[in-house]
Amino acid sequence: MTQTSPDHVxxxxxxxxxxxxxxxxxxxxxxxxxxxxxLYLWSHSISMAAWITFVLFGVWTGISISxxxxxxxxxxxYQAHWTVRLFLMLGGTLTAQNSILYWASGxxxxxxxxxxxxxxxxxxxxxxxxxxxxxxxxxxxSGAANYKNAPDLLNDRMVMFQxxxxxxxxxxxxxxxxxxxxxxxxxxxxxxxxAGLVRMVLGHHITFFINSFAHMFGKQPYTDENTARDNxxxxxxxxxxxxxxxxxxFQYDYRNGVKWWQFxxxxxxxxxxxxxxxxxxxxxxxxxxxxxxxxxxKFKRAEENLSTAVSTYGHDMHHDMELIRxxxxxxxxxxxxxxxxxxxxxxxxxxxxKAEMSQxxxxxxxxxxxxxxxxxxxxQAHGERLEIALRGIxxxxxxx
Length: 400
Fold this sequence. Notes:
Blueprint: H1 6-15, H2 20-43, H3 48-74, E1 79-80, H4 82-94, H5 100-112, H6 128-132, H7 151-154, H8 157-164, H9 166-185, H10 188-211, H11 232-237, H12 244-249, H13 265-275, E2 279-280, H14 287-313, H15 318-351, H16 354-399
Antiparallel strand pairs: 1-2
């Protein structure tokens, strides 16, 4: 693929016309918050009602982006009862991040063209500022609305109702809801300031961190074919969205944090609602597929370390390198055998009755999970041997 030079990107950026609605909202709201909040605090204190509303609206809007805009509508990782969809639609509108149709369609484009400077709406290859905020300030060609990738959303009545009446709904939720609650608790301006303006500004940038930070800082345990990274600190403030490396390789899983210890409240919410019939058809990537991706990355990094060691130290450690390389190859062959056996069983399951195959598949998958763990342990041991060999060579060279 032809690479676009930074100069070319900048020249294109300079020609892009300003997106006035987006630019005004994203620049004026933080300025207003920085001016109005200190002025308010000069003569008032934030009431408990304002703080409570701020927290509740923050939870509502945050979970609406994660569980609604992202996992439900952009990726269709589960289905939800109309009451849940209404709750998430209103909460998403309250965030002032555009309509479901626009947001989800653009996000699908991002996944299809991730990191492409010409087609990814918020490619991190164009810099932190662009991916975090800049892509919304101008009408870049890469961010142009194109709903051809969202026929399901175009046929969703709730999605289209919100899209067609987005501005009135935006005003009702951000001004009407907060003013009504403020009037009810006797603190209109405090509630509107905290649960309306301050909450909106914070919510914007917390969401935008996934487009910027999550493509620049963190780990890549599943794939390095794109810039997405797992970042546990982002997961803590984005309702589990910070496990972005996993998400980019397995985008149709309703979970982002797949380990039992990973913080993913969106996953817990969707799963809990399924117990009472409010969500259904929760999509999950098979455990063995996930393990395969993890182990494949370990092999890839091990081979890179070996290649680096050989190029650095050359013949001084050829015996150790060849021995370790041979062991890595054995583990790679074992991994391929394990995966081929599992795939073969899955193919047979389509040809035979499920009842006849289910027990055999379950037993085999349990055994294969153990095999994967053993392969991982052996990879760890080989890696430690490589480190020992490298330290030995460095010591000999330093003494020499």
